[in-house]
Amino acid sequence: MNEEFIAALKEIVKDKGISEDFLFTAIEDALVSAYKKNYSKYTNNSQNVKVTIDRVLGDIHVYAQKKVIDGLWDEINEIELEDAKEIDPRYEEGDVIDIEVTPREFGRVAAQSAKQVVVQRIKEAERNVVYEELLEKEFDIITGTVLRKDKGNVFIHLGKLEAILGPNEQIPTEKYDFNQKIKLYIVEVKKTTKGPQVVISRTHPGLVKRLFELEVPEIFEGIVEIKGISREAGSRSKVAVFSKDENVDPMGACVGPKGIRVQNIVDELNDEKIDIIQWNSDPTIFIANALSPAKVLKVIIESEESKSAKIIVDDSQLSLAIGKEGQNVRLAARLTGWKIDIKSKSQVDNVEEILIEEE
What is the pLDDT along the chain (359 residues), one digit of tens a residue? Predict the structure, then answer.
């Protein structure tokens, strides 16, 4: 190895974004293995040898680590006290010292034997760099490019790796055309032996949350807080919001001037409807709000323990409160955490009349 080799390594460090210390340490470890493989007669344990590389000139030095003993009996792992003092008079019995044992032809052997290991370590380092970069984006939004579709999966290019958008993570109304740019929510980043794996989603409620944080300054600044989200991706979401500043209307902040803020999010989610709900610590108020756009006449808490409530609405509001295929009440129940039983006013009146007649 020489100065040109060192320059080449430093170019790799620069191009691949790998730590210089990591790469040199990896090479030194590889050279230890190469030495043990080709010069095993000089060593018999993993602690006996170390290799150092001059990071300027590229010179390689192999050292046998030997313990200073008064009365030598193991020439491989020990050195006589008298011999040690000839090297440095300050050495005492029990010290561990480095004795250079670099073979004359080791440079050639090192280059041949270490190449595969070095390449592997470089790959590992590159994977680790990608993993760390993605880990910083976990629970955040990333923009990807659609590559292809196969067996229900959509393959997405994320810059330094390819990720799979599984069927359950796809919005049913979206097509995912080749070369299409889409925003994705990173649910999880995993480190595996084959490199980082990323779980991405277009259906996760976290995507809606992050879009609001990016679109609404009051949320980003912490003035308005998202208290909860219930979502049926591609169809409808309900977002509960609360303002820490009584002078800031949380719903108005999320809607934005002329509705532009929420419309930008709706556009990103392929026209998914979004209900912005005023959060309240009083469950009767929160449940009534959550059933928007329906108007609620009364909320009756039936059980605090089981979190169940009966909702009374005008007959004209019943279908709106329940929603198409029960979607509105289903999303409201998820958002509030309460079991919701909706009754029309006439249904309740009839029950009351029957009870009065029976009495």
Answer: 678 878 888 888 887 777 888 888 888 888 888 888 877 665 555 558 889 988 888 888 999 888 999 887 787 788 899 989 999 999 999 999 998 888 888 877 777 766 777 788 778 888 888 999 999 999 999 999 999 999 999 999 999 899 999 999 999 999 999 999 999 999 999 999 888 999 999 999 999 999 999 999 999 999 999 999 999 999 999 999 999 999 999 999 999 999 999 999 999 999 999 999 999 999 999 999 999 999 999 999 999 999 999 999 999 999 999 999 999 999 999 999 999 999 999 888 765 544 444 44
Length of the chain in residues, anyone? 359
CA dist 231 and 137 (Å) reads 22
d(CA 351, CA 137): 55
Alpha helix (H) ranges present in 143-235? 205-215, 217-220
Look up the pTM and report it. Answer: 0.76
Domains within the chain, CATH numbers bracketed = 3-134 (3.30.1480.10), 137-201 (2.40.50.140), 215-279 (3.30.300.20), 293-359 (3.30.300.20)
